[in-house]
Design brief:
It contains 6 helices and 2 strands; from the N terminus they run H-H-H-H-H-E-E-H. With about 180 residues, it is mostly helical.
């Protein structure tokens, strides 16, 4: 049987009511590792909060995430020469990217990757959905074409940041298990 991933342990620990320090590895160890990994940068903290929102469905803390991502995007845009919609950046780039991140399911085919045969509940598996990539919505469908480069960079940075953060947590937890 496969053990739980670090991300699964984190999601479980954030809902735990058992927060007593113990000799054996427990939820408190996971939360300490998360605090350590998230404290390395505001972007890591934002990525961790976004994973929590993804799991819980509660949008608490979304304002903080938008603010942090806006600062990162402004910094990157000044270096790379991207158009970022100025003061409308959160509405035109960041919030659409976050919405896509939290639910990538294609609205046209329901995530199946194939359209429904008209007038029936049956999928037409001989035809691919023209609006998505195998059931996943395209970022280009939620962000205007002229803002696509910064939007793609933002989505990629979030994924990379979360990957590194949970990797660091995993290393810390494995170290504590020994």
């Amino acid at each position: 049987m496969r053990g739980r991933s670090t991300e699964e342990k984190y999601m479980s620990a954030t809902d735990s009511s058992h927060l007593t320090v113990s000799e054996k590895p427990c939820d408190v160890d996971v939360l300490i590792a998360a605090g350590w990994a998230g404290s390395m940068s505001p972007l890591r903290d934002a990525a961790m909060r976004l994973r929590r929102i993804e799991q819980s469905g509660s949008l608490a803390g979304m304002g903080f995430i938008v603010d942090i991502l806006h600062l990162w995007l402004k910094s990157e845009a000044s270096v790379k020469g991207w158009k970022t919609a100025g003061k409308d950046c959160p509405e035109k780039i960041i919030k659409p990217v976050l919405g896509w991140w939290l639910d990538r399911t294609c609205k046209h085919c329901g995530g199946h990757g194939h359209p429904v045969i008209e007038g029936t509940p049956v999928l037409n598996t001989l035809v691919d959905c023209e609006y998505c990539d195998e059931g996943s919505a395209r970022l280009s469908d939620v962000v205007h074409r002229k803002y696509l480069p910064p939007a793609e960079a933002l989505a990629s940075k979030l994924e990379e940041t979360a990957w590194h953060m949970f990797g660091d947590m995993n290393r810390m937890l494995r170290y504590n298990d020994n």
